């Protein structure tokens, strides 16, 4: 059974009042929103609950094997929410993802984009400019890929065509919703994907 402290640090998907995903927060911060009345819990069947309603509804889950995700105190016991929506917030979902090494690694799923090898070991992980910087290549989503050290050495200061190498896919800027789905447990992905699919922002 997880402690309250561990559960409070788990992630929660945040939707605006149009049910569009706008950010990720923690269970602890989600509860703060619920206490203040600025948010409600939302479940995959689109039922919404105030904190008081969620405390009562959570008891339904008590016998369903989900007890390890309950927030417990001497007087209260309720299930940690997977998603909340902000009742008066109209902010639109993020579209652009800031270019960074960490986001690039997530976009390319820890995989060398030339040979397909897993590069989860940082020592074997490099960043390759498809058109080398020395030849005018820019550091953009479309010109940079994750690459294993062996392939990077093989490619050198050449284009993939000149090196006789082929990219596994055409690099492009990711959507932030697609990025976050790569970095969370399968059960979390399943629940969140339901909401992201609804807004039409997960690409197949």
TrEMBL record:
Keywords: Endonuclease, Hydrolase, Nuclease. The keyword Hydrolase applies. Transmembrane segments: none annotated. One of its GO terms (molecular function) is endonuclease activity. It comes from the Bacteria. Residues 99-153 form the HNH nuclease domain. This is HNH endonuclease. It comes from Thermodesulfatator autotrophicus.
């Amino acid at each position: 059974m997880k402690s309250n402290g561990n559960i409070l640090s788990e992630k929660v998907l945040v939707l605006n009042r149009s049910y569009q995903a706008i950010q990720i927060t923690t269970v602890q911060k989600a509860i703060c929103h619920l206490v203040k009345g600025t948010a409600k819990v939302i479940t995959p069947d689109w039922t919404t609950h105030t904190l008081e309603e969620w405390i009562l509804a959570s008891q339904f889950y008590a016998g369903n094997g989900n007890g390890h995700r309950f927030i417990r105190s001497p007087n209260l016991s309720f299930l940690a929410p997977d998603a909340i929506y902000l009742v008066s917030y109209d902010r639109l979902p993020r579209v652009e993802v800031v270019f960074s090494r960490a986001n690039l690694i997530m976009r390319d799923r820890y995989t060398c984009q030339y040979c397909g090898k897993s590069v989860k070991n940082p020592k074997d992980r490099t960043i390759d400019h498809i058109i080398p910087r020395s030849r005018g290549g820019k550091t953009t989503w479309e010109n940079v890929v994750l690459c294993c050290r062996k392939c990077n050495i093989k490619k050198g200061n050449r284009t993939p065509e000149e090196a006789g190498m082929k990219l596994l896919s055409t690099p492009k800027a990711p959507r932030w919703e697609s990025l976050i789905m790569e970095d969370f447990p399968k059960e979390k992905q399943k629940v969140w994907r339901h909401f992201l699919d609804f807004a039409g922002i997960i690409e197949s």
